[in-house]
Specification:
The protein has 16 helices and 13 strands. By secondary structure, it is of the alpha/beta class. The strands form four sheets. It has a seven-stranded mixed sheet, with helices on both faces. Strands 3-4 form a two-stranded antiparallel ribbon. Strand 3 and strand 4 form a beta hairpin.
Length: about 375
């Protein structure tokens, strides 16, 4: 095991090896003094609770775990590939300038199945810290200014460059969804998480190589990959209702959240506060008229689905779906189904009718959906 900081590298453990099957392999020899030294370093930096959390997943003194406290990937890049199985970083990622590059570096230095452990101050934990630190109404005023500086300026194209030029990326605030989404895009999966001393610690396991997304959806209008006619993927344009990188958490949300009425996920932490409002009044779907102008969608039709959600459908419905363009106004607002099975039955009924009478089916579905939305006050979720 090695320990490093941004100032100086400090070796903590002597290395041991033995011969086994004609190979030289490390032996797990935990010297009491070394274990205590490692424990003291971690406890002094992030506390005893964090130390105990780490020990559930990695042995910190066996030569396979690299312990560091850094906000630069230099200290990760200099490691020899394959030397360490796990990387534990005690410095929060809020101070890392190029977060994805940092995660990619960690991914490149450990094997499949290895752990990467780090922490982040999220929107929620930062809000709690500020509100508890100052008296009302100064805490609310301080929090409002903080939101503008740390959450808005880094995302607006014009102010983004100024923000990072001045701050070098330090002190930026990230949502839990963006943090996890970035990790998934960089080849990790979340194994565990724990809120400790107002910081969110996460255990991430390497499952594949990074995707190296050179053009992530980060602005107010997002491009989402959806399955269209003939099963081809195309970009659907929508107003952002989710945190950046949330699209990489589709499987994570499916594995950890149940579906509620209407086929949406329960307790979907990827959706922002303003996103709930946009979805309720369909404002998020207005940019989809771009898709209609580009002729990869039509006004009425089945909703364009992600690859993960599409996989939940029956083979028969999949085959029928890909015969036609998806639509902006789905049959959902005609039948108002409650469950995923009801949704599939609704779409099958629409597609079978559309096969026989395309124009008349879309015409009647449009006015039925219009009636439900504006007269019966049906709402999106």
């Amino acid at each position: 095991m090695g320990f490093t900081s941004t100032k100086k590298d400090t070796p903590l453990v002597k290395k041991y090896s033995t011969k086994f099957s004609n190979n030289i392999v490390p032996v797990n020899v935990e010297q009491p003094e070394c274990e205590e030294a490692t424990k003291k370093l971690i406890v002094d930096d992030v506390g005893l609770e964090a130390f105990l959390f780490f020990k559930q997943y990695v042995i910190l003194t066996n030569g396979f775990t690299f312990l560091t406290s850094t906000s630069t990937r230099f200290n990760i890049d200099k490691l020899r590939k394959g030397k360490f199985r796990n990387i534990v970083n005690l410095k929060r990622i809020n101070d890392v300038r190029w977060i994805n590059k940092f995660f990619e570096s960690a991914n490149s230095k450990i094997e499949i199945g290895g752990y990467f452990i780090n922490c982040v101050e999220t929107y929620l934990t930062r809000k709690t810290r500020i509100i508890n630190r100052f008296l009302f109404p100064f805490n609310r005023f301080h929090y409002g200014i903080d939101v503008i500086i740390t959450r808005v300026l880094p995302k607006v194209p014009f102010t983004k460059r100024i923000y990072f030029f001045i701050t070098k990326g330090q002190g930026r605030v990230l949502s839990r969804a963006e943090t996890f989404g970035r990790l998934y895009s960089c080849g990790f999966e979340i194994v565990d998480e724990k809120l400790i001393s107002n910081e969110l610690f996460f255990i991430a396991r390497k499952i594949k190589e990074p995707e190296f997304d050179s053009n992530p959806t980060y602005g107010p209008i997002v491009r989402l990959k959806r399955i269209g006619k003939d099963g081809k993927l195309f970009n659907v344009y929508k107003l952002r209702t989710m945190h950046p990188y949330a699209e990489y958490l589709q499987q994570y949300i499916y594995d950890n959240n149940n579906l509620k009425e209407g086929g949406k996920f329960k307790n979907d932490f990827r959706v922002t506060t303003e996103g709930h409002f946009f979805r309720k009044f369909w404002l998020d779907e207005l940019p989809m008229f771009i898709n209609i102008f580009k002729r990869n969608m039509k006004l009425v039709g089945v909703r364009p689905l992600s690859v993960q959600y599409f996989s939940l459908y029956s083979e028969e419905l999949k085959q029928k779906r890909v015969k036609y363009k998806p639509g902006l106004i789905p049959p959902f607002y005609v039948d108002m189904p409650k469950t995923i099975d009801d949704i599939m039955a609704s779409e099958m009924k629409y597609l079978e009718a559309y096969e026989k009478h395309p124009f008349w089916t879309d015409f009647t579905y449009f006015f039925k959906a219009f009636y439900n939305i504006f007269i019966k006050r049906a709402r999106s979720q």
